[in-house]
Amino acid sequence: MKIVLTGPPGIGKTTIIKKLVKALGNRALGFWTEEVRDQKTKERVGFKVVTTEGKSLIFASKRYASKHLVGSYGVKVERFEDIVLPVLQKALRENKLVVIDEVGKMELFSKPFKTIVRELVHDPKKSLMLTIPIRDVDPLVGEIRRLVGAVIVEVTKDNRDSLPEDLLSLLDRM
Questions:
Q1: d(C-alpha 50, C-alpha 58), whole Å
Q2: I need a labelling partner for 38 at 20 to 30 A (CA). Which of 63, 101, 152, 166 fits?
Q3: Domain ranges, residue 18
Q4: Considering the domain boundaries, does residue 134 fall inside one?
Q5: Mean per-residue pLDDT for 66-73?
Q6: SS3 state of residue 49
Q7: Does some domain include residue 21?
């Protein structure tokens, strides 16, 4: 089963993913992204990636000089790849729910990431929980959105609190 969460930035997609990963424990394998905020000003200054195996690393920051930019954030693609590619390669071999939060602009600078995501989403034996932006920022995002048999869920203020429990019920029937 492939479950795809979409919705505008800040609506709660990552919060849902984190709740599901916590509930599933070692039955889930993958990563999510989190904002990094300045401790004094509370202003968002970057993004970090966190794996289900407990590794984390900042990969995008207002302080990074990079040819890969999303808004005012420089993206260090190699840092992202160093932490994400090993966990996704492991996911190809193991029979677990693969969690990918998110297939977004920053992550899509990585060609190996795009390749492995495409392989995972088209593997009929793999169960996935992915998040994608509300807009098709890359052909791969549109491909995921049109994936035959996938359950596409738009996260809204009205449904975000009940979605973790609803999705767990759905996953338990797999």
A1: 9
A2: 101
A3: 2-32+77-172
A4: yes
A5: 95
A6: strand
A7: yes
Distance (Å, whole) CA 59 – CA 45: 11
User: Cβ(49)–Cβ(59) under 8 Å?
Assistant: yes
Cα–Cα distance for residue pair 171/29, rounded to 1 Å: 14
Stretch 113-139: mean pLDDT:
95
Q: What span, in angstroms and rounded, lies between the C-alpha atoms of 130 and 5? A: 6
Burial class for 145, CB neighbours closer than 10 Å (0-12, 13-18, 19+):
middle
Distance CA 136, CA 142 (A): 5
Pairing label, strands 44-51, 56-61: antiparallel
pLDDT at 98: 97
In the chain, the number of structural domains is 1
Q: What CATH number is associated with residue 119? A: 3.40.50.300
19 domain-assigned:
yes
**Kind of pairing between the strands at 128-132 and 28-37:** unpaired
The answer to whether 48 and 36 have CB atoms below 8 angstroms apart is: yes
Count the neighbouring beta carbons within 10 Å of the beta carbon of residue 131: 24
For residue 170, what pLDDT band results from cuts at 50, 70 and 90? confident
Has residue 83 been placed in a domain? Answer: yes
pLDDT tier, 171 (very low <50, low <70, confident <90, very high otherwise):
confident
